[in-house]
Amino acid sequence: MVLRLAERGHLKPERGDVVLFANTSAEHPGTYDFTAKCTELLEQEYALPVFWYEFCTVEDAVGGVYKRKRTYRLVKPVPIEDDPHGYRSRGEVFEEMLSFQSMLPNPHSRSCTAKLKLHPGHALLAEWFSNSDGPAHEGHRKGNSYLNLEATAQTYLQNGGTASAKDYIKSKRYLQSVPTARPKQFWGDFTEAPVSDSRQTAPPLRRLANSNIDARLAQQTSLFGPAAVQFVTLLGLRADESRRIDRVLMRTFFAEGAGSSNCQVSNQPPGEQPYFPLADDDFTAQDVGNFWAVQDFDLDIPDWAGNCVYCFMKGTESLRDAARDSNADITPNTPSDINWWSQIERRYRREVPARNGNGISKFGFLGVSGPSYAQIAANNAPIRNRYSQGTPACDCTD
Question: What predicted TM-score, i.e. pTM, was given to this entire model?
Answer without folding.
Answer: 0.89
